[in-house]
Amino acid sequence: MLLNELWFLLIAVLFIGFFFLEGYDFGVGMATRFVARNETERRMLINTIGPFWDANEVWMITAGGAMFAAFPNWYATLFSGFYVPLVFLLLLLIARGTAFEYRAKVDHPKWSGTWDWAIFIASLLCPFLWGVVFSTLVYGLPIDKNMNMHATFTSIVHPYSVLGGILITLLCLYHGLMFLCLRTTDELQLRARALAKKVFWILAVAALAFIIVTYFVTDLFAKRGALLYPIYGLDVIVLILSVVFLSKSVMAGHLV
């Protein structure tokens, strides 16, 4: 394996780790408006990710640093072409982290309520923007011989990228609900489980639609079909196992 291939693999692992760990963070943030019914329950949900959310974002920072160190041209082209969505994403992450730290500083409903909305909105838009960015990379963007990306608004935001953003958002919400099934008990756990069952079917439809659209509007299957089919097969197995988990009510290490 060449050195550049090793670095590319390392960066891929870092981004996978980020989405795997930060995905349930985003999902729990979204679930605060769907599962919790009052400020106390929202605080309980946020406390489930309290020890983890800031450490999980280190994966993203490390991935960006590895891109800059190993592939500076790739880093420069990517971050200049996606300047607006990535800056907006950065601002959302800052707002989300600030909300986690400051929501409990003042004991007043309006204070905590404002920060709770910030957590929800940032947790909703962050995975959506990540989905838009990566879907656009799969779809393709015009890059000239000087490695300058000529991306307009419609080059980044189009039906395919929006579908990818919706898919990643639903996936993170489902991930977060599964996490809450393990980290909560009683009424909160039952609500998270019930919502997860509903979200699963919406997620399955969105995933199927994204795969079908990807097949027709990109050349990914033509060039990388041998690699994609087992990956999608593994995804199906994981989703089926998650349904088994929900149907058997195996949560928090015991049956409920």
UniProtKB/TrEMBL annotation:
Report the transmembrane regions from the record.
Answer: 6-24, 45-68, 74-94, 115-140, 160-180, 200-221, 227-246
Q: What is its main location?
A: membrane
Q: What is its EC number?
A: 1.10.3.-
Provide GO CC annotations from the record.
cytochrome complex; plasma membrane
State a single Gene Ontology molecular function: oxidoreductase activity, acting on diphenols and related substances as donors, oxygen as acceptor
Q: Which organism is it from?
A: Sporolactobacillus inulinus
Q: Which GO terms describe its biological process?
A: aerobic electron transport chain
* Official protein name in the record: Cytochrome d ubiquinol oxidase subunit II
Q: How does it sit in the membrane?
A: Multi-pass membrane protein
Does the keyword section mention Lyase?
no
| Coiled coil start-end | none
Which family is this sequence assigned to? Answer: Belongs to the cytochrome ubiquinol oxidase subunit 2 family.
Specify one Pfam family: Cyt_bd_oxida_II
Q: Which NCBIfam families match?
A: cydB
- Print the organism lineage: Bacteria, Bacillati, Bacillota, Bacilli, Bacillales
Which UniProt keywords are listed? Cell membrane, Electron transport, Heme, Iron, Membrane, Metal-binding, Oxidoreductase, Transmembrane, Transmembrane helix, Transport
Localization per record = Cell membrane
